[in-house]
Design brief:
MetI-like fold
Amino acid sequence: MTDMAVKREPAAAPVEPPPPRRRRKRSAWSAAGSAARVTATMAILFFVLFPIVWMALTAFKPARDAFSTALVFTPSLENFSAVLGGQSDLTGALLNSVLIGAATTVIAVPLALLAAYAFSRYRFPGHRSMLLAIVATQFIPGVAIALPFLTLFRSLGLIDTHLALVIVNLSIVVPYITWLLKGFVDSLPVEIEEAARIDGCGQVSLLWRVITPLAAPGIFVSAVFSFLLAWNEFLFPTFLSRSDATTLPVALMTLVLPEGVAWGQMAAAGLLVMAPMLVMAFLVRKHFTEGMTMGAVK
């Protein structure tokens, strides 16, 4: 047999895949989108934080530097001294705001919790209508009810009293946090209440020992919102207070003098208005997210 040489063709060179153009385009679009989001976030933070930072700088500037744009200056407490016991004393208005806000919160939160529990656990005639009415009260402009409140409290002799402002604040705050707390109570399992009743827990003890601890994050959030609404209220204290019950937001208008606005003192008073909110937000920050999501739709 004759050996026949077998000729083998050389192996073909591997074909390189085309460059991933689509991936490059996608990565380019992704990078552009990330840059746009960062830019938008920085712009929003600038517009939100710049007035606060500038107000804080103005509050610590001496009166002669109040209109200066210099960022380097010698800090001074003369503006705070002026609004806290000085020539533009706002201490009384500050105490009024604290007293009215605390009284509103202490009364509103228990009332709203009881109402929220009733709406969540019981079905009675007019249940849905009353819930809708509670929501509808939030759409009534404050100006529309300011004059009726003024007429009512004038006939009762309650003009320029803390009681009048607490009552008005309760009419605003209680419906709002009732609806808020109802969502929190809805998210609590009914089985826990049934087990507590089997163990001999009464209705009052059930609310105090079972519902209140479980709804603590929601109660914290409701208390913060209640105090916030009462603290920042401007319209009704303007109508219903004269001097004895003037709150801090209304008292800021006294810093508009005939010779001009005392911007340094105005900035210092503005920081006093913001301070309680910042402190409360810091104290309840751990409960805030849980409280806001606890009543979310399942």
